[in-house]
Amino acid sequence: MAADKFALFLGCVAPLRYPGIEKATRELFKALGYDLREMTGAGCCPAPGVIRSFDQATWLALAARNLAIAEKQDCDILTICNGCYGSLYEANHMLQEDPELLRKVNVILSEVGMKYEGKVRVRHFADVLFKDIGIEKMKQKFTKPLTYNVAVHYGCHFSRPTKIKHIDDPERPHVLDELVEWTGAKSIPYADKQMCCGAGGGVRSRDAKFALSFTEAKLKNMKAVKAQFIIDVCPFCHLQFDRGQKDLPGYDIPVIHLAQLYGLALGLPVSSLGLEAHEIKVTL
Amino acid sequence: MSNVKIPDPAFTQSIIDAGGKTLDLCYQCGTCTGSCPSGRTTAFRTRQLIRKAQLGLKDDILPSEELWMCTTCYSCVERCPRDVDIVDIIILMRNMAVQKGYMAEDHKKVGRSLINSGHTVPASDKLKHLRVSMGLSENPPTTIADPKALADFKKIMAKTGFDKLIGGA
């Protein structure tokens, strides 16, 4: 499919809780010359932790509907969330590998006059920046060198499971650290960096206190190295760190999605980054 | 005799048939438990859960809280020397638990939100205002802004039985 366009998959948390992530992504890809098409009528990916845990058949059918919306526009999908990336990538993989499963899902989709043929690729926006754009082209677009010391949080579903995803190493990843450092900011190492934020797998909605115990363990290590910001590529991890700190006395590290950080480096007006939606005040 | 647990091989087979073909490969090394962030501060033991699944201890697994303690971080899957699809197997067993009616009220709430709006989190007026102030549409161009798309979304969930599964919208 054409390389200069993508179907933008919004998901739930970015547009409905942190719209600055959506806005910054739109501005970033516009600046890079991409045509981002709307996925009109798309819904939840659906969420890999909750909905897939409840009923995999429903999860697969609704994911296939989203994939079909992009396919109809002859576009690959651009995701801005590890959860959406995880669900759509994995559902797509299952459907592309198993023609009988695809046939069954298409029986369900035919109820609403839709069909998926398995032609779409699902991409994570950070992978697109790293592989398709690259440092030279990206640096030409940056107008403002950043000098922050930040803690990068990858989030589990960015590179895992590596059995089917091939964008980074599961134990010692480097893609996001490099993307952050392209802006001039410094990605500082911290203990147990690859640990989960605690929100996934339906844990946040079922047992918020247990989820928060993960978050606190990570925050403690980020605070120990004096991180000025937490940088993520997943609005759900973003929400867990941002809202979680309200309930954790002694922690107030602002949380910034990579698209927002790139917005800063591009010199976008701060008002287009939606920082008002953040619980932990972002002082630049 | 009350401590004697009766294995149910049919339960093990049902996991394998549903896609958990690698369940048999586990040789109980415990790398999963050693890698699991959920097990660090709790009694959750991934290896034990997989052993119970191999033995078919259905009544131990399906009503349990531990089945829901996995955050699906895949640390265990990445390190498993036998390539057991541990997370997929846990998800399949969760599906079976939900079929049996074991579902937390907070999880039903998430399911109802999906049915009612096509999203797992609700819209808020404050954020609509912020969207507009940034030059975005008041609502994202998703099921929220498109009644026909939401009707299609619901039709698919009715077809797969999701609405009945979570006890109606």
Radius of gyration of chain B: 20 Å
The quaternary organization reads as heterodimer
The share of residues in helices of chain B is 40-55%
Largest sheet of chain A: 4 strands, parallel
Counting helices, strands and paired strands, the structural category of chain B is: mainly alpha
Number of helices of chain A: 12
Task: Explain how this protein is built.
The complex is a heterodimer of chains A (284) and B (169). Chain A is α/β, with parallel strands linked by helices. In chain A, 47% of the residues lie in helices and 10% in strands. Chain A is built from twelve helices and eight strands. Chain A has a four-stranded parallel sheet with strand order 2-1-3-4, with helices on both faces. The longest helix of chain A has 17 residues, at 56-72. The N and C termini of chain A lie far apart (39 Å). Chain B is mainly α. Chain B is 51% helix and 0% strand. The longest helix of chain B has 14 residues, at 86-99. The chains are: A alpha/beta (284), B mainly alpha (169). Chains A and B meet through α1, α2, α3, α4 and α9 of A and α5, α6, α7, α8 and α9 of B.
Topology at a glance:
The complex is a heterodimer of chains A (284) and B (169).
Chain A: E1 5-9, H1 13-17, H2 19-31, E2 35-38, H3 50-54, H4 56-72, E3 77-79, H5 82-97, H6 99-110, E4 122-124, H7 125-141, E5 149-152, H8 175-182, E6 186-187, H9 203-206, H10 208-224, E7 229-232, H11 235-244, E8 255-257, H12 258-266
Parallel strand pairs in A: 1-2, 1-3, 3-4, 5-6, 5-7, 7-8
Chain B: H1 9-17, H2 31-35, H3 46-55, H4 58-61, H5 75-79, H6 86-99, H7 105-117, H8 125-133, H9 147-160, H10 162-165
Concise account of the structure shown:
With 284 residues, chain A is α/β, with parallel strands linked by helices. Chain A contains 12 helices and 8 strands.
